[in-house]
């Protein structure tokens, strides 16, 4: 795909404000059915941790599920990983795509693919890499290879990016990543950085829209809005 | 009024989810024009701290402004209060109602009223009172008296309530307050308590709606939704 879809973590209002494609909901987010009602245009991803939660999310209307953490990860220090068997159980229990997250690396993508997972979401495998662009390309190839038995839509590579203060290195890394190698860029945004990142989010999504609608012109940069307040 | 209007602080999505009347936006919230676009049904209040900010908020389409903090307050320790003169300047600069917040007590309501402010918003004057119900009634009378030269809509008494964990005493205090003495109940909700407070918020607003539509039946309690997930 030219340009990744953009999903905003948790904040339905931010997703609406920036024209994102979707929102990723966790256990402390607004309920799925409520989000469907107030934001019918958004694709809804739900983060789940077991089969029961997956079934609840499916019944409530989630478009996709993210399951994790599959392997040990620095994002969840001290917590036991849920493992590939649990991932496979969740995949078998639902009819929507299941994205694996947590400790996914080049080395284990193939094992993840064998569970029937529709794709992977990573943080440190890209943002923590010495060469984030190369890491993304390698993961892209691994996804395409490991998941080649599945439909094209099911080779998802998602970069989960936390927009926080004082993460300049991570920010630089994210900017090096070729977005046409990602299936989605999922953004977690905290209140303290909302205002300063909002324009960036809007620009990101404009880029995605441009890419989708004008595939022949994907090299030209998006025209950023002059001012956030002028968008309405 | 029978039952207070309910406004949710900052979170446009939560305001939409619970069917609140409005949202109160601060400098780190989504921009007013964006909120108007994604949530046209919500009344928009904006928190401002000077005349320039008030004019910007008015130009962007705010329905009302909250100005503060007027007096020294425990909510903003160590910060200089902005004072009655600044409040009066803001009131004079805009055409929408201006609510005064910050250190408002029974003793200074009359002085606040002389600035032309449309009302007051309090936290500790009610939630910190030994008898919150009596404090609310007294503030209600003071507002009606001090602001009696103004139009009826401009005698607003707003309780600003921060929904946080481990504030059982404050929670009990809030429940003692007769809502028909408040003009609005403004709720600030943090992510950690969102899920557990959501039903309470929804119930609050159902109560307000019932009161508005069935004034003769205001003694009957609202019918709470069985389950948050069933509301859609």
Report on this structure:
Chain A is α/β, with parallel strands linked by helices. Chain A contains 9 helices and 8 strands. Chain A has helices at 12-18, 32-38, 51-60, 83-93, 109-114, 124-127, 132-146, 168-176, 194-213, and strands at 5-9, 22-25, 43-48, 64-67, 98-101, 119-122, 156-163, 184-189. In chain A, strands 1-2-3-4-5-6-7-8 form an 8-stranded parallel barrel, surrounded by 6 helices. In chain A, strand 7 (156-163), helix 8 and strand 8 (184-189) form a beta-alpha-beta unit. Chain A starts with a strand and ends in a 19-residue tail after the last helix. The model of chain A is unreliable at 206-232 (pLDDT under 50). At the A-B interface, helix 1, helix 2 and helix 9 of A face helix 1, helix 2 and helix 9 of B.
Per-chain topology:
The structure is a homodimer of 232-residue chains.
Chain A: E1 5-9, H1 12-18, E2 22-25, H2 32-38, E3 43-48, H3 51-60, E4 64-67, H4 83-93, E5 98-101, H5 109-114, E6 119-122, H6 124-127, H7 132-146, E7 156-163, H8 168-176, E8 184-189, H9 194-213
Parallel strand pairs in A: 1-2, 1-8, 2-3, 3-4, 4-5, 5-6, 6-7, 7-8
């Amino acid at each position: 795909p030219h340009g990744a879809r953009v999903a905003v973590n948790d904040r339905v209002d931010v997703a609406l404000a920036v024209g994102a494609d979707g929102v990723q909901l966790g256990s402390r987010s607004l309920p799925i059915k409520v989000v469907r009602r107030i934001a019918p245009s958004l694709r809804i991803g739900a983060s789940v941790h077991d089969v029961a939660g997956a079934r609840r999310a499916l019944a409530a209307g989630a478009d996709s599920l993210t399951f994790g953490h599959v392997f040990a990860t620095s994002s969840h220090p001290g917590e036991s990983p849920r493992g590939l068997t649990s991932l496979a159980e969740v995949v078998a229990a639902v009819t929507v795509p299941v994205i694996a997250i947590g400790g996914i690396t080049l080395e284990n993508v193939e094992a993840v693919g064998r569970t029937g997972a529709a794709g992977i979401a990573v943080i440190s495998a890209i943002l923590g890499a010495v060469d984030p662009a190369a890491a993304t390309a390698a993961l892209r190839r691994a996804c395409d290879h490991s998941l080649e038995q599945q439909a094209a839509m099911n080779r998802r590579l998602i970069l989960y990016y936390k927009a926080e203060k004082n993460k300049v290195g991570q920010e630089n890394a994210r900017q090096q990543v070729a977005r046409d190698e990602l299936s989605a860029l999922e953004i977690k945004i905290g209140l303290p950085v909302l205002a300063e990142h909002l324009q960036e989010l809007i620009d990101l999504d404009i880029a995605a829209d441009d890419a989708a609608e004008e595939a022949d012109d994907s090299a030209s940069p998006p025209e950023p809005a002059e001012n956030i307040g002028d968008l309405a």
